[in-house]
Structure prediction request, 298 residues.
Amino acid sequence: MELDGHISGKTQIISLIGNPIEHTISPQIHNTISRQLGLDLTYIPFKVEKHNLYDAVNGLKALGVIGFNVTIPYKSDVIEFLDEVSKDALLIGAVNTVKNTDGKLYGHNTDAEGFYRSFREETGTSFKGKLVVVLGAGGAARAIAVKIAMEGAAKVYIANRTAERAKNIADIINRNISDTAEQCELIGNPFRDIFHGSEIIVNTIPLGMYPDVDCMPVDEAIGFMPGQVVFDAVYNPPKTKFLRIAEQSGCKIVNGFGMLLYQGISAYEIWTGVKIPDKLAAELYTLMQSKVLRNSTK
Ligand code: NAP
Prediction:
């Protein structure tokens, strides 16, 4: 037997608060990065009940953690307990990363940044001047649509089953970023024309996610146009039916895996100021993908 030396009085803590948190992969991502970089940091998740959110946030501040992640369902609720929030996170209406600097809590949203870094890296495509359609109008759609508009897209259509939620995101973009967003339906001929006319298609609707792998977010009969770039926020399975058909139609495809990885990497960089080397990012990508694949076949 040996004394465990992983945690000492000098170890700095990063945390995660949310509920549920049992299936999170974040501790494995962040603790692996710290071990690889030789940094004395440990990432610990806490399941927090809603009525304890304020106490949990203040407690983390009092304990001097260097930062924490916030996950479902507190990404919006946490904002009122922070000292400052980045412009992106305010427009997105959600904070997933908090940095504690000298007892002041600064909120960021790295979901949007994670999407952007992964999309740019995997496709080499920029959003500037592009026609884009985003499917869905939930939390992921809002983060992604705001980022796409901030990156200079010429047009961002938000197509959702519940029109009001799509309109809300379009209004936020039009009022605060640029007059480029429009809500549309997810069915019918006008939607088909928008879908075919978009250079970039981004899906955030969880249809096609394991175990319902035969589902699609849009009617299969609509079809894709060759050359379109198609992103699916879903990463389990790595190639959803939506992406499979897109690829068969001559589109460039990207799954949500890189977004998941880069939201974590961006958060780590915010907390520590350390730039994660590309080689480490690539190794993490492979490790995470094999873990998700193992879990989905259990
Ligand atoms: P959310 O806030 O619950 O939003 C879900 C969206 O999907 C809503 O727009 C909802 O439409 C739509 N939807 C759900 N079921 C539908 C159905 N049967 N038919 C039509 N539309 C339907 O969820 P979220 O947080 O945005 O997450 C969405 C997806 O993105 C999930 O698969 C999640 O795992 C994934 N995600 C991935 C990452 C990543 O890092 N890769 C990050 C965040 C999220 P209504 O408004 O009409 O209900």
